[in-house]
Write a structure and sequence with these properties.
With 280 residues, the protein is of the alpha+beta class. It has two domains: 128 residues, no CATH class; 137 residues, no CATH class. It contains eight helices and eight strands. A hairpin with a 2-residue loop joins strand 2 and strand 3. The longest helix is centred in the C-terminal third of the chain and has 35 residues. The N terminus is likely disordered.
């Protein structure tokens, strides 16, 4: 007896089911502590206006949406729109459940809700511990800007070595004056670098006096572009994690720093603590 071939419709259905199983994925926004509230939903739309939902294991939840593949585009405007949608969902999750554990933009988990729940279970201790550590705190970015011109003018008069070099250059022939100018520039660069280092160190100490954690960032790092005078140059950036009720105190400390140093500080936030989350 021979087996009869499968009906075309049955074969098509099996192939379709296999494809759906392979391509079923979940876009992951963030992780939250579900014990912090009785809420079970995140009232937000995600990327491409798709609904988001919560997949939970014990006291931790993953904010996800259905997706077939990671996001890909060559259009910068589309990328920005997706990133803004991502951030809006994370912000709404924070409003609903408290400080979230943010996940990198365009993080996709293979499989359906069951796979997400299994993933949460496999990392439960780490996720639950980090959520407890971060609870009630938020991240701010402190951008240090400095106009060096007033300092250069003052140090030219106050620094003995610079004054001597100026006096010698005025009395020297052209060849010697050229060498003295090089020494002058080297000394000035050294003094400027010392001042930049002092300002960065003082800003760190100012932030450290109130922050739970402080981390240095590239001087050009920014989460939000803000206009500044052309004479103000970025010389440092700090990420700080502070308690939710400490924003006004942070602002006061930064005002005092500005008054004392003459530098400028712009800070953005509050943000989920992106800088202070481990790589899951």
């Amino acid at each position: 007896m021979t087996n009869s071939p499968s009906a075309p419709d049955d074969e098509t259905h099996r192939r379709s089911s296999t494809v759906e199983t392979k391509t079923e994925q979940r876009y992951l926004y963030c992780l939250v502590d579900t014990s912090a509230t009785s809420e079970t939903e995140v009232p937000a739309k995600g990327v491409d206006d798709v609904s988001v939902r919560l997949v939970s294991h014990r006291e931790v939840g993953a904010v996800v949406q259905d997706c077939g593949h990671p996001l890909e585009t060559e259009r910068l405007d589309q990328l920005k729109q997706w990133a803004m949608s991502h951030q809006r969902v994370v912000d709404k999750a924070g409003e609903t459940f408290g400080t979230p554990l943010p996940v990198r933009f365009n993080t996709v988990l293979e499989g359906g809700d069951g796979a997400v729940s299994d993933w949460l279970a496999s990392r439960y201790s780490q996720i639950h511990g980090e959520l407890a550590t971060l609870a009630g705190t938020w991240e701010y970015r402190l951008h240090l800007l400095w106009n060096s011109t007033p300092f250069e003018e003052a140090v030219t008069e106050d620094d003995d070595e610079l004054r001597r070099l100026i006096e010698r250059k005025q009395q020297a022939d052209s060849g010697t004056a050229f060498l003295l100018e090089k020494k002058y520039e080297k000394r000035l660069r050294s003094l400027l670098q010392e001042r930049r280092d002092e300002l960065r160190s003082k800003l760190w100490r100012t932030a450290e006096s109130i922050a739970v954690e402080v981390a240095e960032q590239p001087a050009t790092a920014t989460l939000e572009q803000q206009p500044s005078p052309e004479s103000d140059k970025p010389i440092g950036c700090l990420a700080v994690r502070v308690p939710a009720d400490a924003e006004s105190t942070l602002g006061q400390r930064l005002d005092e720093f500005v008054d004392e140093t003459g530098a400028a500080v712009r800070f953005t936030g509050p943000w989920p603590p992106y800088t202070f989350v481990s790589d899951l």
